[in-house]
Amino acid sequence: MPKRSKTDAHSLRHVQQRAAHDADQTEFAAVINGSTVVDAGIFDDRIADSMDDYRADDPMNVVSQSHRHDIAYDSAAGAVHEEILRRIDLLGDAYPFSLSGNNISHTQSKNLVYEFFLAICNSPNITANPYTGLPRIFERLSAQIVRGYMGVHTSAIHTGAPRDNGTSFREVMEQLNRESGEWIWGPEPELPDEPADQDGGVDFVTWKMAHDGRCKGQLFLLCQCACGNDWDTKLNDLNLRRLAKWFHPPWLVTPVRAFATPMHLVDGHLNEASRIAGVVFDRARLTMIANQAECADAVALFRAEITDLIALVIGDEAA
Fold first, then answer.
1. What distance in Å separates the CA atoms of residue 116 and residue 119, rounded to the nearest whole number?
2. Rounded CA separation 149/238 (Å)
3. Which is nearest to 180 in space by CA: 149, 222, 140, 146?
4. By CB atoms within 10 Å of each CB, which of 33, 76, 77, 87 scores lowest?
5. Strand pairing of 97-100 and 219-225?
6. By C-alpha distance, which of 27, 1, 123 is closest to 80?
7. Of 271, 234, 267, whose CA–CA distance to 15 is shortest?
8. Whole-Å CA distances, 173 to 168, 170, 178, 209, 254
């Protein structure tokens, strides 16, 4: 019996995420130049001969090396084209690009949110100066976008390290207690005064405040953010059992875990990330939420910072 080809989302998640990465590079080239060809994102891969994800099986070794290379390139270009079409269908008017044949053109979005997330994914670095502002602003911007997602009577607080005012994790969680009425700091007896990881795996907290003024059993969403290509290694960083031991009582209603990333996750990875990390806010979801009218004012507060950071990454790419 012939072996069945694996075409489900889970089996294809790695090759589709590779196409998503190449589509990101194509989009950013369009941001820099106004427009570009769809296969612009795989040009460097072709030069480096690093297109194994797209190579067709050739168990009998009957196809020449150059022909296999051409097949892989055509496959990669087709995959990027399909990914861009998927984004057009998914994001609609929130997608700041248009496709005509093999050409993709950029039209600047009103809030620059998509372009900012794209810049993070195309940055040469996010952990060293001058790029450290990319993940820092992502955490703070995402907190406000998710706050908008949760609707009226919702608050948000950034808790990840480093914090703007230099407060400790204990101090920022005591602030959360003052604002929400829950989360009473009280480590278990064998613990030190503060956790060693500085943020307990929580980069921001949003919560739905009780309408009746009784601060008991409110809905809290705790989010871990990941901006690097190693995002999939951080899905378990936020662990409620590890976090609970720092509070007494920890909570009345179990918080909802969430995960935010500027990456555009394909379905197979989105499914897996949701199983492990909770509610996932990837680039597509954050962009669409940010484009809602109720988020406009909060997003506008970051306009100057994200404009500068986009220009920083564009400068490196264009150099």
1. 5
2. 21
3. 222
4. 33
5. unpaired
6. 27
7. 267
8. 9, 5, 9, 16, 17
Whether the ω angle into residue 124 lies within 30 degrees of 0, i.e. cis, is no
Q: Residue ranges of the domains in the chain? A: 13-107, 124-302
For residues 153-179, give the mean pLDDT.
93
- pTM score, whole prediction: 0.88
13-107 folds as Arc Repressor Mutant, subunit A (1.10.10)
pLDDT tens-digit series, residues 89-145: 999 999 999 999 999 999 999 999 999 999 999 999 999 999 999 999 999 999 999
Strand arrangement, sheet containing 204-208: 154-158, 204-208, 219-225, 256-260, 279-281
Give the three-class secondary structure for 95. Answer: coil
SS3 44: helix
Q: Are strands 103-106 and 256-260 parallel, antiparallel or unpaired?
A: unpaired
Identify whether the C-beta of residue 224 lies closer than 8 Å to the C-beta of residue 180: no
pLDDT at residue 57 greater than cutoff 70: no
Q: Among 239, 242, 245, 244, which residue's Cα sits nearest to residue 259?
A: 239
What's the pLDDT at 319?
Answer: 56
Matching CATH topology for 13-107 and 124-302?
Answer: no
For the record, the structure tokens of 245 come out as: 């031991």
* Domain made up of 124-302: CATH architecture: 3-Layer(aba) Sandwich (3.40)
